[in-house]
Design a protein that fits this description.
This protein is an alpha/beta fold. The chain is 49% helix and 14% strand. The chain has 2 domains: 117 residues, Response regulator (Rossmann fold); 50 residues.
Length: 185
C-alpha cells in the first residue's frame, strides 16, 4: 500500500518538483495551491506526511500547521514547511508550532523526498536492486523440463546467477526509463 503525501504551496513549480521526486515510487502525492482547499483535501485523504508552504492564499501554512497539530488526527503526522526564498519566516509563529523540517526555496526535491521517507519510517528508497534469490526460489520458478536438466551444485549456482543477471537487467531498463521520463519533464 503506497504512502500518502500531501503538499500545499502557492508555487506550481515547487509542487511540480515534489511530484517529480515521487514519480514512480511507493508514494501518492496530493497537492493544492490554496490553504482552504488544502484543509479540505487533508481531511479526506489522511496523509502519512504533510508539506506546507508558509505563504498560501486564504489560509497560510502557519494557520494550517497550528490547526493540524492541535487535533488528534494529525498531531503525530510528520510536518514539513517550505519557506519562500525572499521571505523571512515568522520566528514567533514557528516556535509555537511542532514541525519536523523547514526547507527554503528553491529546495532540492530529492532532499525533501529523503526527509519524508525517513519521517514516515521507510528505511530505504523503494525499487532497490533485487536481492540474490536462494536455490529454493530458483527451483520453484523453473519449469519441470528445466529442472530435469538441472543437477545440483554448480548447475544450480549457474541458474541462480542467471536469474540474478536477468533481474539486474530488468532493473537497469526500469532505471533508464525513469531517467528519460524525468529528463523529458
Amino acid at each position: 500500500m503506497p504512502f500518502k503525501i500531501f503538499a500545499a504551496d502557492s508555487s506550481p513549480s515547487a509542487l511540480k518538483a515534489l511530484h517529480l521526486a515521487f514519480l514512480d515510487t511507493n508514494y501518492d502525492l496530493y497537492t493544492s495551491e490554496d490553504g482552504i482547499e488544502a484543509l479540505e483535501i487533508l481531511m479526506q485523504i489522511d496523509p502519512d506526511a504533510i508539506v506546507l508552504g508558509l505563504s498560501l492564499p486564504r489560509k497560510d501554512g502557519y494557520e494550517i500547521g497550528d490547526f493540524l497539530k492541535k487535533g488528534e488526527q494529525f498531531k503525530d503526522k510528520p510536518l514539513i514547511f517550505l519557506q519562500d526564498a525572499f521571505q523571512e519566516p515568522d520566528e514567533e509563529k514557528l516556535k509555537s508550532l511542532k514541525y519536523d523540517k523547514l526547507f527554503k526555496k528553491p529546495f532540492d526535491s530529492e532532499e525533501v523526498a529523503s526527509a519524508i521517507r525517513k519521517l514516515v519510517g521507510e528505511t530505504k528508497a523503494p525499487d532497490t536492486l533485487p536481492e540474490e534469490p536462494d536455490a529454493q526460489e530458483v527451483q520453484e520458478n523453473t519449469s519441470e523440463g528445466d529442472s530435469a536438466h538441472m543437477g545440483s551444485g554448480k548447475e544450480l549456482e549457474e541458474a541462480v546467477m542467471e536469474k540474478v543477471r536477468q533481474e539486474i537487467l530488468q532493473m537497469e531498463h526500469e532505471l533508464e526509463k525513469r531517467i528519460i521520463a524525468r529528463l523529458k519533464s
